[in-house]
């Protein structure tokens, strides 16, 4: 075994200690990880979970599943670009993720997100406020490391490096959570902006976080968990993540900033006039030769109503970001998986930020979109309250058994209930709501 292979071994380990693949199975550890994600029920459920638009009026709009596939494709493109654009002897090259690894991290990055998008995340955090909170990335780690279907104890039992890759916020809930206002008397008075969760790892997963970070030095562990807080009452924000995470995060931003914009244009939520008034002048002001040359053509193609031209514009933007990526080095860390980070040059970074901010302001924050987000939140709040009031009566039998075991072990059982609520698709949650609260809907013959 070479020194290089020996360095990689800790990152191939699984919590269960499983090492020997099936007979004649020549796949790498990360190829097996990818298979576990793709064949999991949690991944399949993403096909019916909201992405950026809280609307299901047609079959065109992206879901969490199609978004995750696009992130994986972009992540793979970023790795390929770095591998071939940098010198072969660049220090980061031997630590650059193989395709199966980066695809696994990207495919699973949203696997813990609840129904109704980030609105659902806020609603569940509100209900779990006094019991450890809820956060989508923390839930993804929980599924891969504890709650997935490939092990009764270790979730999907994926490799340590895959878990490190999806660890966007390597800080525990209690170290970063800020202050919340007093809860209102009624759910109708719920104000979402007051109940956003801290980006974190659940306190219950402290042992899992410790296991993931085990190969790092004490100095690296301490630096990795650094966070900053803007005000005494605000949530603190983690400052660092791994090399693989930086690739996944950039791929996620590109998919959100470019691909999700396409949905809004096709659905008529973003018009050529809106682009010209609110976005084009800001993009044109950037010191970016690509935009100087192509911005006019991109606008024409995006709003041409011809699919192939719109795809040409989308592809041009994605390619610009991918081919601009670069590796920077943070000397505060010793280990290469923490020292190296993938980022964009300043002009491309600003352009991507403008695209994301435009979508937030002119799509997500539109009242007609927020009404649907609010409706989804109200459904989850009411269902959580009802199920928590009498779990043994209302929960599906398998979940009720888990809930009872949690209570017998000295816990309140609410994390198990939250796991169940978070696993719901938008469609399942809507059916469950109707079954619980609408007298004319629901049937004893309808399986849940």
Give the arrangement of secondary structure elements.
Elements: H1 3-12, H2 29-38, H3 41-44, H4 64-85, H5 99-108, H6 117-127, H7 136-147, H8 160-166, H9 173-176, H10 206-213, H11 218-224, E1 227-228, E2 237-238, H12 243-266, H13 272-284, H14 289-302, H15 307-324, E3 326-329, H16 336-339, E4 340-343, H17 346-364, H18 367-389, H19 391-394, H20 397-408, H21 414-423, H22 426-437
Antiparallel strand pairs: 1-2, 3-4
Helix pairs in contact: 2-5, 4-5, 4-12, 5-8, 6-18, 12-15, 12-17, 13-14, 13-17, 14-15, 18-21, 18-22, 20-21
Helicity, as a percent range: 55-70%
Strand order of the largest sheet: 1-2
Total number of β-strand segments? 4
| Count of the domains | 3
Major sheet characteristics: 2 strands, antiparallel
The CATH architecture of the largest domain can be named as Orthogonal Bundle
Structural class: mainly alpha
| Overall average residue pLDDT | 93
